[in-house]
Amino acid sequence: MNFFKKKRILVPTAIMMMLVAAYAQKLSSEKEVLVGTLQGSTLDEISGIAASSVYPDVLYVHNDSGDSSRFFAITPKGDLKATYHFTGEKGIALGVRDCEDIAVGPGPEAGKSYVYLGDIGDNKADYPYVTVYRFDEQATKPDAANKNIASDRVYLKYPDGPRDAETLMIDPIEKLIYIVSKRSGSVNVYTTPLDFKGNDTLTLTKRVSIHFGGLPPFKWITAGDISKDGSQILLRNYQHVYYWQRLPGEPAWQTMTRKPRKMYYKSEKQGEAVGFTADGKGYYTTSEGQGEPIYYYRLTQ
After folding, report:
1. What is the enclosing helix (H) or strand (E) of 117?
2. Residue 43 is part of which domain span?
3. CA 165, CA 220: separation in Å to the nearest integer?
4. Is residue 290 part of a domain?
5. Minimal CA–CA distance to 59: which of 299, 300, 282, 301?
6. Cβ atoms < 10 Å from Cβ of 204
7. What average pLDDT does the segment 129-154 reach?
8. From CA 271, how far away is CA 120, in angstroms rounded?
9. Going by C-beta distance under 8 Å and a sequence separation of 6 or more, which residues neighbour residue 152?
10. Is 292 a member of any domain?
11. Is residue 13 part of a domain?
12. What domain of life does the UniProt record list for this protein's source (predicted)?
């Protein structure tokens, strides 16, 4: 191989390394701030949290398996503002099997925001498909204690067989739904376009496998989020919160192949929820259990 051919290969690599260095800011999170406590007996197995893009100081949350087809709006202090009921699947007793994460992002209509709820838990890895529900966020105005709202749903199949997952994320840049698996030595990252039509059945695309150190079940990935502008990514397990900053033009799954930054994390009873604030300047975590704390972490440089 001559010198000029070497230059054509090495220069792009050098440029990429410079970009990574430039964008890998020394971001960290300050110690937790206790901003609230989950109020009442209804919010007893919170497994996902997402900030509204439309309504200030509104967080969407939902319970784990055993609850019906519903989710909630709360304040950062933990006060229940609204309960949203939707039509689940007729063949399932409670309408849903095991909702594990919630996210907010764009959808089929430009300029509108949507809430996505992932019925993606599968502890025994034996369901032929998982389901993601999509709600127009204009319908989730928390102006009544109980609201019945319409939804679209998509049935998703894994290309490599059923598996358990607890992480649902929306990429606003590439307009993709992300699902990250939970129970293996290396977790798998899957995507599908978010402009699905109601009742579509789609096969997810496997993008990459990512290894996290530690012992099960503590290392299992239990939640994640992508910031509203798509520039930041979080994943969490029972011991750590992992953070990535995305490079311009880079797929989110590729970002997650780089070494993440471990953020400060206050240990929780059974932490299965993490979500960026609407402005992306921090994030919230909370846990399953009645009366559990809601923590806020501010991102700092």
Report:
1. strand 114-119
2. 25-300
3. 10
4. yes
5. 282
6. 19
7. 97
8. 17
9. 133, 134, 196, 197, 198, 199
10. yes
11. no
12. Bacteria
pLDDT of residue 76: 98
Number of domains making up the chain: 1
Q: Which 8-state DSSP code applies to residue 57?
A: T
Q: Work out the percent of the chain whose per-residue pLDDT is above 90.
A: 88
Token look-up 């319908």 returns 139
Q: Which amino acid is at 218?
A: F
Q: Check which CATH number belongs to the domain holding 267 and give it.
A: 2.120.10
Taking CA atoms, 71 is separated from 45, 88, 177, 214, in Å, by 12, 12, 19, 32
> What is the average pLDDT across 136-151?
97
Can you tell me which residue has the tokens 């997650």? Answer: 256
Higher pLDDT, 7 or 71: 71
Distance CA 201, CA 31 (A): 43
Query: pLDDT confidence of 26, banded at 50, 70, 90?
Result: low
Give the Cα separation of 62 and 301 in Å (integer): 32
Which amino acid is it at 198? G
- Say how far apart CA 28 and CA 30 lie, in whole Å: 7
CA distance 300 to 22: 16
